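Supplementary notes for students who missed Thursday's class. We covered one full example, reproduced here. Read the sequence, then the structure, then the short commentary at the end.
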Amino acid sequence: MRLDKFLKVSRLIKRRTVAKDVSEQGRVWVNGREAKPSSSVKPGDELKIQFGQRAVTVRIERLAESTRKDEAGELYTVLSEESTPRDAEGW
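Structure (token representation):
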């Protein structure tokens, strides 16, 4: 599954176009590597997403083409949430 679609379906990011923009800005990493919106993800992959001064790391548990709002949280497990300085780079 494409990274931008997973971010939207899992509701980590509200819209697919926003997920695409965030990925293109270099704010999403898959297994420690900067990821493009078209990057392929699979269960077991770790995603790190930079939201302003907050970074969230999640592990993908399963994939789904679509989910209901109450089921979206089952697609991933939050591994860590941390505050970071705005100029942090080099993850």
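Commentary. The mean pLDDT is 91. The CA atoms of residues 10 and 73 lie 7 Å apart. If anything here is unclear, bring it to office hours.
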